[in-house]
Write a structure and sequence with these properties.
51% of the residues lie in helices and 16% in strands. The chain has 508 residues and is an alpha/beta fold.
Length: 508
């Protein structure tokens, strides 16, 4: 739905819905988004909330490129005075990353809009803010742990010489190479037409087309496009694509899985050779000789922890950054004195690391005090108990769906046994594959829910307490964005005077 939706100014409370899938299979089978939407609309109907817009994204995992979320932001910015809520199924539908979730929640709160999870009713007070942060950190931790397991599995698959999926490098295609349980294993083989184009690019760069000498990258790009030698899907070549081909080690038989990871985590998969290694080495040497030396990137200072919070106790003005010794030293200094001179304020300065440390340690001493954390953790346990009820109902539903899927498969097998259908028939194979995929997805969801419930039953107060200590550590030494989100939830201002620092808490 476009961002310029016309919203009513009168009537019941109004909300915008946001849905998102969490796995590639959910996206493929369209299981998650309709279910989230249905539950949120039921919630709105029971709470007399009018749904004025709904946005959705199909990108999975931690992918941040989400057009639906951007459209939601635009709508909220344009119509903030006409909205009361942004509804999600759970906070992890928005972000697995805790910092990004807190930044969005803060922006919504500043616009007078409450972010509500229909499965995680935690409230909008400071206690709820802390609980949401803990839940979000648990989601982030779970996502990272899952990513580790997936990465290990993919790396092992690569070590065995198999292709992990995705778009094959230009010049290759993926083909089935056998079965491992229910999983089809694939490998890369040469794509004849594309491989010829790869060989041509290297030949043009090395010796030209017989009418001229060796060509540069730009001239090769022009030659390919002028002669209607296309990339995949009939696309023209670009300078960047030609340069990528000339630098890709895959063509000498070494595909690197995990290219962006540290060297010791990369896996080399043997693939068919397209370019002679001697020609490839000569090409790399020539490319390096023509590559201009790049200057080191300019160092950019990170965000400032107490921006908008630190106030000069002498004049009431905000305190801002001042640097010394070519940026080696950083201070909080009175903004009025810095911008308008001593006539307005005699000014004062404090070393930035020192003030940051004093404030965060003082806040942490109160925020993570044992009796306070006990209340927060009790609230967390109560919240997890409500989730257990929801998960139990969901498991019962999934078990019914699994029975239906298995019955459907049994009927299809009966058709084959009676000679009324046969494997190899296109319509039958499509139907059989669809039902089998549905059954496998339901099994996977049941297994995941069982593991989650088992983990909840074994989590002790001591274990959650240890997690709370990790939160405290992250608050004291973690990324600036995370620490800022916490401070803004509980601190109204930090007043800096000659010999006193006063921390003013937010209203409870």
């Amino acid at each position: 739905m476009p961002a310029n939706v016309s919203l009513p100014k009168e009537g019941p409370k109004r909300a915008v819905l946001y849905t998102r899938v969490s796995t590639g299979r959910q996206e493929l089978m369209k299981l998650s988004i309709p279910d989230q939407s249905r539950q949120m609309r039921q919630y709105c109907a029971s709470h007399e909330i009018e749904v004025v817009a709904e946005f959705s994204d199909a990108q999975t995992g931690t992918n941040g490129n989400r057009s639906g979320l951007e459209e939601l932001r635009k709508l909220v910015q344009a119509r903030s005075n006409e909205l009361e809520f942004v509804l999600v199924h759970s906070f992890s539908r928005l972000f697995r990353d805790q910092i990004e979730l807190e930044l969005l929640q803060r922006d919504l709160k500043n616009s007078g809009i409450e972010l509500v999870s229909i499965t995680q009713p935690i409230g909008d007070d400071p206690s709820g803010d802390l609980l949401r942060n803990i839940i979000s950190l648990m989601d982030e931790h779970q996502s990272k742990e899952t990513s580790k397991h997936v990465a290990r599995s993919l790396a092992e698959n690569a070590r065995q010489g198999y292709w992990n999926g995705g778009t094959p490098p230009y010049g290759y295609r993926s083909v089935e190479a056998g079965m491992r349980g229910q999983t089809i294993k694939k490998k890369l083989e040469i794509s004849p037409v594309e491989a010829e184009n790869v060989a041509l690019i290297f030949s043009l760069y090395d010796s030209g087309n017989g009418k001229s000498g060796p060509m540069g990258v730009k001239r090769i790009t022009e030659y390919l496009n002028q002669n209607a030698i296309k990339r995949r899907k009939g696309k023209n070549w670009t300078v960047g694509m030609v340069h990528r081909v000339l630098n890709d080690n895959t063509y000498v038989g070494e595909f690197c899985f995990g290219k962006t990871k540290p060297k010791d985590e990369q896996v080399i998969i043997d693939v068919p050779v397209i370019v002679d290694p001697t020609l490839f080495a000569a090409t790399q040497q020539r490319l390096r000789s023509r590559n201009p030396r790049k200057a080191a990137p300019r160092t950019v200072n990170g965000p400032i922890l107490l921006t908008g919070l630190a106030i000069c106790g002498k004049c009431g003005g905000g305190m801002t950054l001042r640097t010394g010794k070519s940026g080696r030293y950083r201070y909080y200094t009175c903004g009025n004195r810095k911008n308008q001179g001593s006539a307005l304020c005699e000014g004062q300065s404090l070393p930035m690391p020192e003030l940051d440390r004093l404030v965060t340690e003082a806040v942490a001493e109160v925020l993570f005090e044992s009796s306070r954390m006990e209340k927060v953790l009790q609230k967390l346990f109560e919240f997890l108990a409500t989730l257990d009820d929801d998960q139990r109902l969901r498991m019962e539903q999934l078990k019914r769906e699994l029975t239906e899927a298995e019955s459907a498969l049994s009927r299809l097998y009966d058709l084959v046994m009676k000679g009324l259908a046969s494997a190899g028939d296109e319509d039958f194979d499509i139907r059989f594959s669809r039902v089998k995929d549905e059954r496998d997805i339901i099994r996977s969801q049941l297994k995941t829910l069982s593991e989650v419930q088992s983990q909840r039953r074994t989590v002790s107060a001591a274990q959650v307490g240890e997690f709370a200590n990790l939160v405290a550590e992250k608050f004291l030494t973690g990324p600036i964005e995370f620490r800022k989100s916490y401070l803004r939830a509980f601190v109204e201002s930090v007043v800096v005077e000659d010999d006193t620092i006063r921390i003013i808490p937010t209203a409870a």
